[in-house]
Every structure is written in structure tokens, then in C-alpha cells.
Model the fold of this input.
Amino acid sequence: MLETNRLPKIHRLRVWLGKFLGYRFVPEQYVCAIYRDEMYYGTRGPGFVHIDGWHERAGALVHTAMHFATMDFVELPTKQGMQVGLKIYLGYAFDPSKTQREIAMQLVNLNADVMRALVHRYVRWGLLRIVPQFDAEAIARAQVFQQIERALSDILPPRLQFVGIELGKGIEVQGVILPERLKQRYEQDTQLGSHIAATKDYAPTQVAQALAAQVVEQLNLQSAEGQYVNLGDAFSSYKTDPTLASASATTIEHQPGENANVPPPPQAVPPRNQADSAPTYLDDPNW
Done:
């Protein structure tokens, strides 16, 4: 509201004289609630308004200018049932003359915080009917913000106008509020994707070494206090020795030489014509 000492002197003189003549000055962007015989009658203003001192009295000044606010809305269910949150930026204005008298008489005495809470409740009502139509991933990636904004602009005005609240143009969805568990899940998926892309540039033995180190580190972190987990010996096969990496995949064949008397290992299935007559390595005492 305008301060009296900032008004011109002639205007302040008129305001002072008007008090004796039944006039009251209502600043711009305000209206004055009028009570007749102690019952809510309506609003007057802005400017100089006449009040019949015998039947009427002036009530509270109601701010009718546009208010702008950023509101947080949490626990909004998505199409998969996951809950997310949204940050909404919007403007709203309350005018008692645009609603029914029975409703206006309840709202003219509300302060700014209570009026904001009322708008918050209506916007949440709209989001609970819009957000479940979209996937949680699409909301988290800001792919459906425009659809949500248009839907809010369509369903909110009729509801708010019923209580004398006008919704400003240009509703904006400014961000997503993810639950901590869902946020960690997306971070883990992103990190896993980067790890998979990074392993393409390394040999399998190097990847195995890195995995072994991660397992040992995680076991140490999750172990009880004062307990040390050492699994170095269990992963000794992943040392940086190329012969160890290929040893498990090498087929042992008989090489004649110093062990020439050692017969070769038996075949999986002996030939039919020699199955009954040919001696095997089990019959050789030197094996």
C-alpha cells in the first residue's frame, strides 16, 4: 500500500478532510471491503469512496494485483506408479467482486500466505489429474513440460474463477523434484552406461582386474567395523601376465622328447575297430 508521506501535499490534505466527510481513499491495486449493518456488502475502490457512517463501515483492504510465486509439488504419481515432484512458476490475482458474495466474505480477510496456500491446493488438484498420464522417465528428462503447462492452463481457470482468483498467463514448469531413491537409480544407470562404454577400449584381463579390485573394495566397505577382508589371493589369476590369461584356454598336447615314453591321453571315444584289442594308457604301468 502507498505510504501517506509519499503522496503530494494537496492529496494528503484531501485524504485528511475526507475523513470528516465520510470519504476514504483506497490506493491503486486495492479494493476496500464494505460492511453494511455489520454484514459483508461488497467492495469499493480504488480511489476516493464514500461510506455512509450510519449504516456502513470500511473493512480490510484487499490487494488485487498479480502475485507471482514458485511452488513445489511433491509426491505426484506417474504412469508407472513412481512419485515425482515439480516446480511450478505462475501468477494469480484475487478480486472479491468476481465471485459470489458468500464466498467473497470468507476470503477478503485472508492474508497473502493463506491465499497462496489456497492456490497451491488448486494447482496440486490439477497436477494429480495430469501427471499420471506421463511416464516418470519422460518427466525426469523434461520431455513433457509443455504438455503439462497446456493442461494446467486448460483445467485450472474455471476452478479458480469460482473463488474469484484469476490465473496469470504463462504457467511454467521449472524443474523436477526426484525422490532420493529414484535420483540414485538414474545416477547409477548413467554411471553404468559410461563404464560399459569405457571397457570397450581395454583388454578382457584389464577389465577383470578392475572388477576384482571393485569387489574387494566394496566388501571392505560393507564389512563390520574393525574387520578386514582380503581377497587378493582369490583374484591372483588376473595379474598382468599374458601367459596367465592364455593358460586356461591352452590345450595340452603330447610332445615327443624327454617324455617320449608317456603315451598320449585317450580319445573321448575309441575307434570301433580298436576298442577291444588296442591297449590303453591304463594298462601301461609307466603312466
Observations:
- The radius of gyration is 41 Å.
